[in-house]
């Protein structure tokens, strides 16, 4: 069937324009279009601009700016006039469908779906009372004729492409269905009276095509049966195809030679298939031939559709030449649409804010910071504040040595002072003992212990007591200074040493594999929480930007007031997808927080251990930093101690000499006393 001659197509005449008080040049170019696709484009543009015009200027029926518009009715040739710009649009739309039907009837056969679309839009959006050729019955007839011819073209291509037999059969069956609908319209007495003589010609051609394409459908059902090796079914399908083709031949009397040629070609194909199938089954396969009504009927596959007409599509109609004319009603409608958008945003934001409040309260109660939930990274390096101290000590290698030497010098001077004071006290005690001994020898009652000695010794004793008191007070400070030095000395040695030793001295957590798994799971869920927050914020911003940029004023200008609510609903659908994403995000929060709760329970023990280690780590760092910062103070106090004890040591040395002299003088005085007593 690949080379079957084409069947003729039905095409429609274009309406002729009459009076219309519009720009002559525009009118001429719109009604006298060339019979090609450029003409279709011109009609579409004119139709679109009329749509823009009628939405701004009151040119409809019984409106202020309405003017007479005249067009010729196709079937009667009469001129029909209406004062309604929609009549002009309807006639232009009819001509668009008619021109597409004319182009579709030519060899290219690519325009029937466009014709069906034009007639469908005309039927669904305009009054049917303008003229007979645009009545509901006639438009339905035109639509089914155009869809049938479009499906016929698809069938032709499917056979050329060698599509599967069953698919070709279904496509052909749908051609039959469309033509049956058209035939029912043609057989309607009212339609027949409207069409006149052309009704008989169309009906005869359509009836012939019904039988012809039914034959093609059964031919391919027989081919499918052949492929499935159902040889009995093959025979009955080919026989049915032959019967239907014979009916088509009867109805084709008077049709052009192209039709007769197509029928003869098809008869050769089907007749040959039937004879071969019957012979093979009679002599080879011997399968029972079923009755046709026992087999599954062929269901049509509607693979064509009326292509929609969009009068406001700028790619088709071009820019709106009346764009600057925006009626007040359009501004008012735009305000209403803005309120619809605001309501949508309020509803969405109420849900977002409620979920955010729950999320914030929940996260605050857990006190979990995703950035520091484990703090493990801090233990892998020396903190900068400590590195700074280590670096400072590295350029002062004698720090510890200087501190030790200072301690040693201070200790030496301290010892010298203590020795001098001890010697003075010993001298004074010896002098006191000698004094008591002499008194006993002289038979005198010895003075009580602690009685005033000789004036020289008494002066030394008084001065010694003062130095001892000062020394005892300074001794406590000196002891504290040495204790502080010993405390910080070890830390300073650590800071002055290799960095690895410093790192090793800092506490670090000892986590088990289970502990690490708990941490990893918690961090993963916290990451999910942040991801959920970020996505929610991003979607909210996208929604706000969409609403901000959403201006449908141009569409409102070209929309009838009765259609506003429907337009709003259609336009608001653009937000459905982002609303779905937000709903999914909000719904996920409950599961995420439940998982976080479970993870936090397992994290409690690990968290406590990490907190303890972190406290020790911070304390160690602070102690080491304090030792570094104490160095200068220790050196200063050590120097002050040395200066103090050096001064005290000098005074003690002088006092020692003075004590020796005083004690010596007292001894001499006692010897003289003993000598005189003898």
TrEMBL record:
GO terms for biological process: early endosome to late endosome transport; endocytic recycling; protein transport to vacuole involved in ubiquitin-dependent protein catabolic process via the multivesicular body sorting pathway. Residues 27-359 form the BRO1 domain. Residues 414-444, 522-549 form a coiled coil. PROSITE patterns: BRO1. Its main location: cytoplasm. Keywords: Coiled coil, Cytoplasm, Endosome. It is found in: Cytoplasm; Endosome. GO terms for cellular component: endosome. This is PTN23 phosphatase.
